[in-house]
Structures are given as C-alpha cells and as structure tokens.
Amino acid sequence: MTAETVPKTALAIVFDEHDGPLRVEREHLVATPEVGEVLVRIAYTGVCHSDLHAWHGDWPDKPKLPLIGGHEGAGHIVAIGPGTKTPLKVGDAVGIKWLATACLDHCEDCLSGNEGLCAEQKASGYDLDGTFQQYVVSDARYVTPIPDGLALDIAAPLLCAGVTSWRAIKETNTKPGNMAVIVGAAGGLGHLATQYAIAIGLRVIAIDSGEEKQRMLAKYGVQDFIDFKNFSTEDALVEEVKRVSGGRGPHASVVFSSGAAAYNTALKYLRPRGTLVCVGLPANATLQAEIYTTVCTGLRIVGSNIGNRQDAIEALDFAARGKVKPEISVEPLENLHSVFERMERGEIAGRIVLSCK
Ligand SMILES: [Zn+2]
Ligand SMILES: [Zn+2]
User: Fold this and answer.
1) How far, in Å, from the CA of 342 to the mean position of ligand 1?
2) How far, in Å, are 163, 172, 222 from residue 202 at the CA level?
3) Are 89 and 231 in the same domain?
4) Ligand in nearest proximity to the CA of 130
5) Quick one: which of 52, 255, 320, 323 has the fewest CB in 10 Å?
6) Together in a domain, 48 and 195
7) Which residues are in the CB-under-5-Å shell of ion ligand 2?
8) What is the distance between the terminal CA atoms of the chain, rounded to a whole angstrom?
C-alpha cells in the first residue's frame, strides 16, 4: 500500500461548539503527514468518558474547536511523512492513545517516563483532532505497535481503558499472592483492571453491584464479590472487606468510582502499609485521611491517570496472549451521538467500539 491510495476526503464526526451538533462530514479533507508524522487509517475507535467531557467542554482546560474527538483508535499506517526516521512501515497495525505527543527528550518528566506530565504534551481528540474519523495524522514516536494476531476492535479500547487500568494495577505496590480490592470492578476500566490484576497473580476482591456483574467477574476468576448495595453503613462494608481478606484488610484498593465515598471507605479497610490507588475523577471531592492513622500505619495514597508508551505496549501484550479481553459491542461511527446519550444515562456495559470502515 502506498500513499497514492489515500483518498483526498473521508468520513469524520466534527463539532464546532460545546454540546453542538456532531456533524457527520463525509468529505472531510484527509491530512497529509509532515516530517515526524504518520497517517493512520482507523479501523475501530473506542468511546471513552473523556470524549464526552471534550464535547461538553466541562473540564477546566478547554479543547480546540472545531474538534474531531476520540483517542482509542486502532488501524494501519497508510503513509509516512517525508524524511521521518521511524522503524514503522506502511501497513503496520498501530494504536492512537490519549497522549498524542510530548517533548520526550528535554523535560524531567519525559526523561523519567512520565510523559503524561510534560508541559508540551498534546492529547488526541482534545488538543488535536482524534480518532472519530477514517484517517488521522499522528506523531510517529507516539503510535503504539499492535501485536500480530490481536484483533483491532479488541485493541481499540485497550489504548485508553486498558492502559489506564494496567497502570493503576502497577501503582498498587503489590506482589503476586497479595489481595487487591477493585471498586467498580465490572465497569469499563474496572473489568480490565480485574483481569490485569489476576494475570499478575493478585487475588481480587471485587466491589460492585448486581448478579449480572458478579457472573461476569466470576468468568475472570473472581471468587470474592462484595455487593456494596447489601451494606447500609460504611462500617458494615469495611467490616465485610476485612472479613473477606482474612481480618487484616487487603494490601491495596484501586478505586474507579465516580463518587467520593469509596475512596474514604478504602482508607478504613486497608491493612497497615496498604496502598490506595485513586483513578476515578469525582468532581469537587476530598479525601479525608486521618493523619494519625496514616502515619502510624504507613498508608500510601497514590493518584494514577494515564500510562506511558511502555505501559501501552504491556497493556496490549496481555491481550495478545489472551490474558485480558475487553467486553465490547461494535457499532458504526455515525452512532457517536447516540453512544454519548447512552453514556450520559449510564446505560453502557463494557466499551462501545465504533467501526470506521
Ligand atoms: Zn480515555
Ligand atoms: Zn517532556
């Protein structure tokens, strides 16, 4: 395949103002890759909660407008910018993530593998046009190679939900055989975190609600499921987590909840030297860590947002080896507005993946 086969225009979903119409542009101009860039033909893109925030414009940092959102794209390289030094070739399967570019070589954060903190970072589907389109240009240093044999519809949601949940599990400071509570274990991120945790030998205590979710988690090997709705007080829930974990409490708790309560409850059931990993983003919420207990029991409180390029490679590798599989349903790209509506109503189980073919 050569650059000549790339059409001049293609399908894209564009919005011009926050909460404005998601226009289906069938003749959107396909960008030409410059030096350092590749052009990727997107086969599938996941839809993440952050895409909804970009459309609403309700985060303190505003995205560019007009915008093509999306940051969980999987596809093939169809062209490479002239003079670009890269081991990648036309035809390679690659993924597009939230982080689209960063300096990579002259700030302390990039040099220590924390490129998500780089002051020069730009995000796909936020600062730059993203994956809700058939062709997207990306920094050649930033696309993630997709392993042979990993289906692109499965790879797509792993590029944000997978990387984020894998990174959160890495932040637990645990060893194989340790116990980790996962709060929101059946959700879009939680069901992946559960599988990553089990894959590295952690015993997962899942907190969520409902028999359907319990059945889904049992499929991954979760034996300890706590339905939080069965506990009317925080004390009763804390006692149950401690009982299930043998009395002392779990070694870690990874919280994906969008409510503040779950974070504060976790601080009460963790064992001494236990780690709370905060991943969900409840608005205007505060952690209430009692300083005396935190000091005397050596509790660790860690925030975890996105992973780096190596985390992304690892997140995909688990899936290529059959250890992790996202729950997906595939719909056409044109359904984006309807997906946002269902997301808003909390009706989406697992991840919806849009086909850009
Ligand atoms: Zn995301
Ligand atoms: Zn940097």
Assistant:
1) 17
2) 18, 10, 10
3) no
4) 1
5) 323
6) no
7) 102-103, 107, 110, 118
8) 17
